[in-house]
Amino acid sequence: MDVTTIGSVIALVGVLSGSVVAYLGKRGENATARMNSTMDQIQEERDGLRKELAERDTRITALLEQRVTDQVEIARLRVKVIEMGGDP
User: Fold this and answer.
1) Do 84 and 77 touch, CB atoms closer than 8 A?
2) Were 86 and a residue from 15, 37, 50, 81 both cysteine, which residue would form a disulfide, CB within 3.0 to 4.6 Å?
């Protein structure tokens, strides 16, 4: 083989290896973009679930307060029934 052929083979190997690197780099870039998109969706869902959980906790607290109020009212009415001579 002469020097020109060896130079051509080396250039060909360089071009092929550059193409492989570019291809793999683009695949990695696409994978990273896809992962970032998925993470964004997960974070949005998490934020929505946190909001729903906070609303649920607020509703539970309100219902518990209403239950206590109702129990106090029931006790007051029982006392009133007893005072009036009835049987609760």
Assistant:
1) no
2) 81
Q: Are 78 and 88 in contact (CB under 8 A)?
A: yes
pLDDT digits (tens, 9 = 90+) for 11-39: 888 888 888 888 877 887 888 888 889 99
Task: Give the Cα separation of 57 and 63 in Å (integer).
Answer: 10
Rg of the chain on CA atoms, in Å: 37
Q: What is the 3-state secondary structure (H, E, C) of 4-66?
A: HHHHHHHHHHHHHHHHHHHHHHHHHHHHHHHHHHHHHHHHHHHHHHHHHHHHHHHHHHHHHHH
Round to whole Å and give the CA distance between 81 and 84.
5
Question: What's the pLDDT at 72?
Answer: 95
